[in-house]
Amino acid sequence: MQLGRSDTDLLAILSSEIAKAGATRIGVAVSGGGDSMALLHLATALGERFRIEAITVDHGLREGSTAEAEFVQKVCSTLNVPHATARWTGWKGEGNLQKRAREARYSLISEWAKRRKLHVVLIGHTQDDVAETFLIRLAREAGVDGLAEMDARFERHGVTFLRPMLSASREDLRQFLKRHRRDWREDPSNENEMFERVRIRRAIETFEGLGISTESLARVSQNMRDAREVLEADARCLGKALVTQVQGDLLIEREGFLFAAKELRRRLLVKALRWVSNADYAPRRAPVEELDHAIQEGRNFSLAGCMITVTKTRIRIAREYNAVRDIVEHSPSWDRWIVDGPWEMGMQVRPLGEPALAGLENWRESELPRKSLMSSPSVWKKDVLIAAPLAEPSSSWEAGLKSPDFLASL
Ligand SMILES: Nc1ncnc2c1ncn2[C@@H]1O[C@H](COP(=O)(O)OP(=O)(O)OP(=O)(O)O)[C@@H](O)[C@H]1O
């Protein structure tokens, strides 16, 4: 492939993003659409120092998806790029189809990347995707974080994904393919106005007269990313200054908390709630704001599987008994804990609960209050309590947190 001037620009963008990641074994996620096909061809032009492999996920959800995967495979074989097709068969007809398909796609791509020992996986999002996502988030009344999507680099399932083409437009990539007479497959859903993204794409074209363009929306999104960086750094500092960890509970010094700015308080609460409940996702904004209100007024609150107890001087965030009462595991890993001791077949880990706690002699010597101990792990054999490591330390059983240090996790 003979590269021209604007090709060199595109290649320079790609090279610089890959250099930042220091990667040489590179995976490309290729749907067969214009963006990812252009990315594939550009990646193969990077030079011999780089080993390129490609994957296509066949979701099997619409007619033609298998033909698209075969198309990508054929192109890859002419480029001498090893290609894999991963099939998704997990759709059970429940929940949000697009969300499930995306999650499955990342999971299949990550498994492949680990198996093939790839350093990074490239995906083909462009400036247009940034602008569309910005408007979609605007319609959802997002805050700084929502408007700051998309990151040029992120980790998923232990794999690094790069979006190297965020500063190029969809049209730049289509033109690149046309110049080199390279083919791609147009996804028919890109024209289907049932999808919000398609309606937003059409709307952006009508904004030009107002001075709002793909480029300007993408720039505002970058401003939001810069703002997010500062807010995150400040929230980390606030956490380090105000939070003490006692086993699995977090104590926040209340006076300092009340003096902090509203957005920093919200960020600190989200971090604390996610750590205590071991959650992948942040709770929604409105209930966190209600919690903030409760803290100002000195009221206790319950949110996201956590119990928040407020006194004059401090805020305790602990796991809520009701959120774990039905969790029974037949292995040492329970909720956010791992128990360690002479494990035998037939043993179970459950929350300690009220009656068992009342039967213990020395629980008052623990540094944790009764309610926190109720939701702590305990080991049982049939109905016999073997160990309650947090409520009654023993020499043979311990309980360690899966994410042991809150301050280090900030
Ligand atoms: N089925 C798939 N198999 C492999 N990679 C995919 C698949 N679907 C999406 N991707 C990757 O994720 C990127 C973004 O996907 P998204 O669905 O947002 O856009 P798209 O319309 O599929 O992009 P494209 O124009 O490349 O088709 C794609 O550019 C591609 O790198």
From TrEMBL:
UniProt-annotated location(s): Cytoplasm
Function description: Ligates lysine onto the cytidine present at position 34 of the AUA codon-specific tRNA(Ile) that contains the anticodon CAU, in an ATP-dependent manner. Cytidine is converted to lysidine, thus changing the amino acid specificity of the tRNA from methionine to isoleucine.
Catalytic activity: cytidine(34) in tRNA(Ile2) + L-lysine + ATP = lysidine(34) in tRNA(Ile2) + AMP + diphosphate + H(+)
MF terms in GO: ATP binding; tRNA(Ile)-lysidine synthase activity
Record: residues binding ATP: 31-36
Main location: cytoplasm
Top-rank taxon: Bacteria
Native organism taxonomy: Bacteria, Pseudomonadati, Pseudomonadota, Alphaproteobacteria, Rhodobacterales
Keyword Cytoplasm listed: yes
Similarity comment: Belongs to the tRNA(Ile)-lysidine synthase family.
HAMAP family listed in its UniProt record: tRNA_Ile_lys_synt (MF_01161)
GO biological process: tRNA modification
Domain notes: The N-terminal region contains the highly conserved SGGXDS motif, predicted to be a P-loop motif involved in ATP binding.
PANTHER family, sorted: TRNA(ILE)-LYSIDINE SYNTHASE-RELATED
ATP-binding listed as a keyword: yes
Enzyme class, first EC level, given as a word: ligase
Keywords: ATP-binding, Cytoplasm, Ligase, Nucleotide-binding, tRNA processing
Biological source species: Cognatishimia activa
EC assignment: 6.3.4.19
Pfam families: ATP_bind_3
Name under which the protein is recorded: tRNA(Ile)-lysidine synthase
Segments forming domain tRNA(Ile)-lysidine/2-thiocytidine synthase N-terminal: 26-202
GO CC annotations, alphabetized: cytoplasm
